[in-house]
Amino acid sequence: MKIRFILFIASLFSALSSYSQTIVDPCYTSVNYGTSFPGNSDIYSMNADLVHWTGSSWLGQWSNANVTMPPPQNQSGCRAVWIGNASSWTSGGEGFALRLDQPLVAGQTYSFPFTYVSHGFGSTGSFSLRFSTYSSQNYPSSYYVGNLPAVGTTWTTNTITFTATSSQGGHNWIFLHNGTSGTSGLVNSLCPTCNASPTCAISIGSDLTLCQGQTSVLNATTAGATYLWQDGSTDDKFAVTQSGLYYVTVSDACNNLFKDSINVFINSNGPLLNLGPDTSFCSSNSVVLNARKGFVSYKWQDGSIDSLFNVSAAGRYHVSATDACGNIFKDTVTVYDYRKAATLYLGNDTIFCNAVSLQLNAGAGFKQYRWQDGSTDSVFMAIATGLYYVEVTDSCGSVFRDSIRIEPDNII
């Protein structure tokens, strides 16, 4: 599994704490845009409006709200919440809440950055956000933390930092509200592509499997960056020929430090192809043969190409599978039909005539045999008169029993 570590970056959608609480819906996409948008389990509205940027205008605002300020990067598809009034002020103000993926922990310090601007009808050029936490969608029970600094008509990112008190322990909602100040503004979504801060990143790809003798070049090239690989080399590329964990640390043009890693596997023998031992129908009407995932292609005896094959008739079945390196593997399995009870019959009671012994035969095809003396062959040689019996078990686990009595020859 690929592991990526970001050692330092100004993340606009994460709570910067050792407990890594994050906002569940940083992009505001779990609800539809519109005036006084209805909330759901991840984002909650208190008379606020959710607006959607088309590239030239905001959808979802009141017709006379006059919200025209594009998002910081003017990205089509970005969203924001507008808190304000279109023609008359909402009593008590407006706001919205965002759910955290984990509850706050008392004594831990958290930081949440927000990008916002004073804009639209009712804007006074001093848009300030009141920040609170709470444990449910019930604003009156919220815990007030503080206000973000007031901003004018230029998009601004400010961060509110606090240490959770014992009263906040277990809170999993954060609430932004403009109170009763009478000023309107936009709170931009926390998606990196919709905010003014540059988003620099590095990736050397996903985990990969190489064939024997194959080489793959890992590429970390980023303009103006420096590099340090796991072996101390400093090129922007690294050639891989052996299995193992490879990683690079990049100092990029954004003055951020990134670390990315990748696992490389060498395919020397291919995945395991094993249909298992011969099997049988018992109570069910079909058996599923599994050639297992991991191959590039499959081909069964009937030409089908899935990794699974459903068997509904007894017979011999085979599959060939090709791995990523072109190696071909084959396996075969036989399926028996034991859905009908097997027949066990030792014969009628009998007598010794001129013979001094008699062979009793329980028949072939059973999985286990056990005679009255504990022997386990399918046949038993009787050399004395008396009662003989056998217990057999078939491949489905069904048990059958039969007995026979041998009388002495009393004919004179």
Any key phrases for this structure?
0% helix, 5-stranded mixed sheet, disordered N terminus, mainly beta, 6-stranded antiparallel sheet, single chain, 412 residues, 39% strand
- Mean pLDDT comes to 83
**Helix-strand string:** EEEEEEEEEEEEEEEEEEEEEEEEEEEEEE
Unreliable residue runs: 1-19
Largest sheet report = 6 strands, antiparallel
Radius of gyration, whole Å: 38 Å
By DSSP (H or I, 4+ residues per run), the number of helices equals: 0
Annotation, overall tally of beta strands: 30
Strand order of the largest sheet: 4-3-5-12-7-10
- Give the overall silhouette: elongated
Binned strand content: 35-45%
Give the N-to-C terminal Cα separation.
87 Å
What's this model, at a glance?
With 412 residues, this protein is mostly beta strands. It has strands spanning 4-8, 43-46, 49-53, 58-59, 79-83, 95-99, 109-118, 130-134, 143-147, 156-163, 173-177, 185-188, 208-211, 216-219, 226-229, 237-240, 244-251, 257-267, 279-281, 287-290, 297-300, 308-311, 315-322, 328-337, 350-351, 358-361, 368-371, 379-382, 386-393, 399-407. The chain contains no helices and 30 strands.
